Amino acid sequence: MSEQSLPTLPMWRVDHIEPSPEMLALRANGPIHRVRFPSGHEGWWVTGYDEAKAALSDAAFRPAGMPPAAFTPDSVILGSQGWLVSHEGGEHARLRTIVAPAFSDGRVKLLGQQVEAIAARLFETLAAQSQPADLRRHLSFPLPTMVISALMGVLYEDHAFFAELSNEVMTHQHESGPRSASREAWEELRLYMRGKMRDKRQAPGDNLLTDLLAAVDQGKATEEEAVGLAAGMLVAGHESTVAQIEFGLLAMFRHPQQRKRLVGDPSLVDKAVEEILRMYPPGAGWDGIMRYPKTDVTIAGINIPAESKVLVGLPATSFDARHFDAPETFDIGRDENPHLAFSYGPHHCIGAALARLELKVVFGSIFQRFPALRLAVAPEELKLRKDIITGGFEAFPVLW
Ligand code: HEM
User: Fold this and answer.
1) Is the CB of 351 within 6 Å of ligand 1?
2) What ipTM was assigned to the predicted interfaces of this complex?
3) Within 10 Å of residue 207's Cβ, how many Cβ atoms?
4) What keywords were assigned to this record (predicted)?
5) Residue 266, preceding bond cis, omega within 30 degrees?
């Protein structure tokens, strides 16, 4: 293949939602491909399921926030001190251990009723709006944001402030792009977190900021690390789930038979959520998460030199027929669904149980509460947040 004709990322969804045919065709051609990234660099894109898992669990690969000197990461949060994807090995484990208990399956289970109550309140607020109403404003944004704010110990009322900063932080920065706005936003978010942590000294509580303060006092983390960890959790704790609610709803609108099936048998909700995560995960394009090999490595017989860019294409792995029957079919009753939407290995998503809970609460009751829920515009009129790593939409106007 000549250098000019290298496949180029991102590969956009069709109608904002369906898998890119280009991605599917490339994926069918083998588990790893030489591609050109939006930054202009060349590198590798891993689209095979087993190969992705192997790379994600191999200590030879540095995480997305630890690029070699020749590259800058896709967002300013990556590389920032304290953010979990900026650390590896023992240092990463030390930091992850501080926050992990708050996101364990057991702790998240205890939040179930609280999340249901928040969703029920938001459903009623949405129902009270005149139609069409923006579901992003009234449900997909506030639900995950209220939950993570409560867990962290910050006021949801601050959301107008921190959501704007978070958007700026989550904007793709392709090497050559200007970074100053993004850097300033990240600094401002850290400053905000520093202030909130200081407040917790006077008024501690059962929240993550108080836990982080204790970790600093016990010498388990520096103050800089704790602030970075806190600001990162606030961003990660809402951006992906907001987008996942929107992509999931769009998916259900496109597949009325599957929606009917879910309404007829609400016990399918667990499987439905897994299928949404597998086939319609967050992310504007079909790309994945970056890794950088420290040494020369071989993936599926291809030699990759140290310090290269290797993008692990999590969304593409969902279409690997070695692991999913009829992978291009959206089937909310799928029995075997070991998708990698939450990644794999030491950096797998710490918020997976929380995200699953939020998604189950939404998809388990929204079509009961709003049986005629539908988009108020043609899907192509929705504005995809193309520059934001997690995707989602500017607005999500609905009728019911
Ligand atoms: C549908 C929702 C979500 C999806 C699809 C998702 C996906 C992911 C993925 C793919 C990674 C791996 C990143 C990498 O290795 O480069 C990750 C990491 C992470 N996620 Fe999530 N996430 C979601 C929700 C959440 C929530 C609710 C939180 C709550 C705090 C969260 C916190 C994190 C953190 C802290 C990491 C870094 C973990 C580490 O490096 O050890 N995520 N997530």
Assistant:
1) yes
2) 0.99
3) 18
4) Heme, Iron, Metal-binding, Monooxygenase, Oxidoreductase
5) no
pLDDT tens track for 165-208 = 888 888 876 666 667 788 888 899 999 999 999 999 999 999 99
Q: CA-to-CA distance for 333 and 242, rounded, in angstroms? A: 23
Classify domain 21-399 at the CATH topology level. Answer: Cytochrome p450 (1.10.630)
Residue 60 sits at φ, ψ, to 5 deg, of -70, -15
How does pLDDT run across 44-100, given as a tens digit for each residue? Answer: 999 999 999 999 999 999 999 999 988 887 788 888 888 999 999 999 999 999 999
Strands ordered across the beta sheet of 42-46: 32-36, 42-46, 310-312, 289-293, 61-62
Q: What is the reported pTM? A: 0.96
Give helix 142-152 / helix 112-127 axis angle, nearest 10°: 140
- In Å, what is the CA distance from 217 to each residue of 100, 134, 210, 214, 223? 18, 44, 11, 5, 9
> How many angstroms does the Cα of residue 341 sit away from the middle of ligand 1?
9
- DSSP string for 219-266: TSS-HHHHHHHHHHHHHHHHHHHHHHHHHHHHHHHH-HHHHHHHHH-G
| Closest residue by Cα to residue 393 from 258, 282, 289, 287 | 282
Residue 136 and residue 149: Cα distance in Å, rounded? Answer: 17
| Contact by Cβ (8 Å): 113, 372 | no
